[in-house]
Amino acid sequence: MAIHFTSEQRLEDGVLEREFTLGEIPGILWTPASAPAPLILLSPPPLGLRKTYPRLVARARHSAADGFATATIELPGSGDRPRWPAAEQALADLRRAMEADEPVNDEIIDALILPLVDKAVPEWQAALDALLALPEIGGPVGYSGGVISIGTRLAVVEPRISAAVLFAGSFVPRAMFGEARQVTIPLHVLLQWDDEGNDRQAALDLFDAFGSKEKTLHANMGGHTGVPQHAGEAAAQFFTRHLK
Questions:
Q1: To pair with 219 at 20 to 30 A between CA atoms, which of 21, 25, 106, 210?
Q2: Facing residues of 190 across strands?
């Protein structure tokens, strides 16, 4: 499957931003002036690329200043992609449990996360195939983003990914702990200590389970959206160390 570019614009700092489709999957590629560049796969939250664009482009421009190309794709069921009734039902069940102040059980977490991982990971691999075929993209490849289970699975099954920054802020199915033990690449895990929607203990247990010899946990006080700027800078330094 080849990338089909649908638009392009040059941002004021010289970064080239191009929207593309990969089959039915929309995405965006940002490339610095220096090419070929190492690649960071930037996984968005499941809120849609249009909603999260300001956050994504800020991170992409920061990465371009460090000499990296960055690409993102729309997650299944998000944004302009076809509705996914099973995922919507799982989300409704989660909200109902949280509003009723009931514990979020394994069944709800599995229904919400595991089908998303099963669908999203092969799409990321197809995107990686297409991106690495472009002359302006070189290796190596890093992964950065939330829905920590997607990053965990990708780190296990995709040998082209050399290092990953993972955002702890999503529910973790029990099955992912076994996969985490198989992860061996360097990891930098970001955790917001007071994240209202995150099970902090599950995030700490997952970090403990990762099999990587080099893994760093970067925890900061504050809620889900309160990630301090210096946390992003530390993540950028991590990629410079491992991908340059």
A1: 106
A2: 167, 218
